[in-house]
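name: query_chain
kind: protein
chains: 1
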Amino acid sequence: AWPTSSNDLPVVSWSDYQEQAQNKPLVVVAGFIHEVAEFLDEHPGGRHMIAKYVGKDATAAFFGGVYDHSNAAHNMLAMMRVGVLRGGLELESESVIPPSQRLKVVRVQELFMTPENSNEEDV
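structure:
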C-alpha cells in the first residue's frame, strides 16, 4: 500500500487542526497532519512520546530532537497522513525545525561565492 497523495488530502488551518485534535489524536510532522490513534500503544518509545504532541507540531522531535527515526518509521508515519497543514507549520515553530531539515534555494553563482567576490554583480 502507498500513502495517500498529498494532492488528495484536505488542507487544514492551524486552528482547525487544533480543534480536530481535541476529538482524535492528530500530530503534525513536516507539514502533514497524521492520525496516530492506532499507533499510540505500538510506539517503541511509549505512548507518552506521541501523546504529548497531540494538537502540536512534532517535527523537531521526529527529525532527531529525541530520536533519529529510521526509514521504516518515516514510511509508517506517511501511511497515517490525513491532511496537510496550511502554510506547512505553526508560525511560531519555524525556529525549532533543525537546520538540517531546512531547505534554502540558491542561484548557481551563490554556490561558488567567496567572501571576496560576494559583492560582485550577478553575471
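note: The radius of gyration is 18 Å.
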